[in-house]
Amino acid sequence: MTFSGAFKDTVAPTAQEGASQTVPPTLEEKRATVEDLVFSLVALSSYIHQLYTQAHLIHLNIEAPIFLSIHEFLKDQYDTHIEQFDATAEFVRTLDNFMPMCQRGLLTAHKGFKHVKSYEAKDMLITYLKNLEDLGMRAKELGTLAREVEAPDVENYMADLVAASFKSAWFLKATLRN
How many independent structural domains does the chain possess? Predict the structure, then answer.
């Protein structure tokens, strides 16, 4: 692909010059790297860890007529999130990189997480629902990146994470609808 400025400067090789003619470089799409994958995995691990904490705290703080069912659902969720965190972080280690060593390091690895701002049951659950959907979309993007760098193990796990995130979001939506 050439852009108008580069197109004017491009010289077609002549028969005498053949393939040795140099052509000014054109802008190429940035290729994904393993470093990009590692950075994205650490950020996703951070996101999942924040989701674990959020699910656990909502589990403890929710008060509503649907308390028992939501309490059990969220217990399953935070147990699942800790497994997801572990699996995602292990991919970082298999790529011969380290995870942050503390909560502060994890929090700086990813920003933009939606935090609960109310103790109202519906508000807490809607915020958590939005984060679940966001997790699904982030995992989908990371799966595409993993495909680009030929990491099928990461790509396959991301597909599983997408499915789990959107299934949990569906359960919450069905619960919250009146």
Answer: 1
